[in-house]
Design brief:
Elements: E1 34-35, H1 73-78, E2 97-102, E3 122-123, E4 126-127, H2 128-144, E5 149-153, E6 165-172, E7 183-185, H3 193-211, H4 222-225, E8 245-252, H5 256-262, H6 266-282
Parallel strand pairs: 2-5, 2-6, 6-8
Antiparallel strand pairs: 1-5, 3-4, 7-8
């Protein structure tokens, strides 16, 4: 059903998918990653016109980042927290197309504008990017089996990215090792708040049902609410306004309880993600 493509895939992929489900083909030096079900022929765009990136970026050159302690820092960042203007929901007819981002995957290959991104958490002998990519890959396989085209995206989101839905997949970390559970957030400055709220509600319901994990809403952070891939005013490599979007912290890699799911039973976590995507697309508000 599509082609498997990856953005600058220099790191060996075999290490990543010690997964039991590997019908996803990844090629290097091309702008997208599409998840496939076998058999698949590389080289074609499954959506024709949907999703993909707009290679142009006409954002004004951003001001230099304020230095720590700069009294202007608060106003600088506050400008990016104002609500975006209301935007029509991006919902073209035809095959549904979604983007699943594997958080922190290929962080070392991000463009200069994203140069401050960090590497993520770790636990159970796994780096976060490995777990995120495994979950995204498994969910993508489940979704393509339902007739949905899927981009499995690295840390660098294509410029002005369009899809019927964008979900950033992450796994959390806690230095105490005591926290466990999952949480979901949408952009605090959403251009389609009703759609984004519906997406968050659907993820909270379906992921909890599939995994049995409790919600950890009290630890939703500013980094989730103002996730860089949501910030189309600041970054060229971001999701376009009008696209329903959210970020999920699928559990804590630092929790032995959560690792039983994220590493020991990743299909259940991926199933919760895939189920939420299917349910959201079937009832997406217009």
């Amino acid at each position: 059903m599509g082609s498997g493509k990856a953005l600058g895939l220099a790191r060996p992929v075999a290490a990543l998918v010690a997964c039991l489900v590997c019908p996803v083909l990844l090629l290097s030096q091309v702008p997208r990653v599409d998840a496939l079900t076998a058999p698949a022929a590389p080289g074609s765009d499954p959506s024709g016109t949907a999703a993909a990136a707009d290679d142009s970026c006409d954002l004004p050159r951003p001001d230099p980042l304020p230095t720590p302690g700069d009294p202007a820092a608060r106003d600088f960042w506050q400008a990016f927290r104002l609500p975006l203007p209301p935007t029509p929901l991006w919902d073209p007819p035809g095959v549904k197309h979604v983007g699943l981002q594997a958080g922190h995957w290929l962080t070392e290959q991000v463009p200069p504008e994203l140069g401050r991104l960090q590497q993520g958490s770790s636990g159970g002998g796994k780096q976060e990017w490995e777990v995120n990519l495994d979950l995204a890959t498994r969910a993508a396989v489940m979704l393509t089996a339902r007739g949905i085209d899927v981009d499995v995206l690295p840390a660098t989101v294509p410029q002005n990215y369009h899809a019927h839905l964008f979900l950033a997949i992450h796994a959390d970390g806690d230095s105490s090792g005591n926290l466990h559970g999952f949480k979901v957030a949408r952009p605090a400055f959403s251009s389609v708040p009703d759609a984004d709220d519906h997406l968050v509600d659907t993820l909270n319901r379906d992921y909890a049902l599939a995994t049995g994990l409790p919600r950890d809403d009290e630890h939703i952070s500013r980094r989730m609410l103002y996730y860089y891939a949501f910030n189309s005013r600041r970054y060229c490599h971001a999701v376009a306004p009008g696209v329903p979007q959210a970020v999920i912290e699928t559990g804590f890699l630092t929790s032995a309880i959560d690792r039983q799911l994220l590493i020991g039973d990743p299909d259940s976590a991926a199933r919760g993600i895939a189920s939420a995507v299917v349910d959201f697309l079937a009832s997406e508000p217009s």
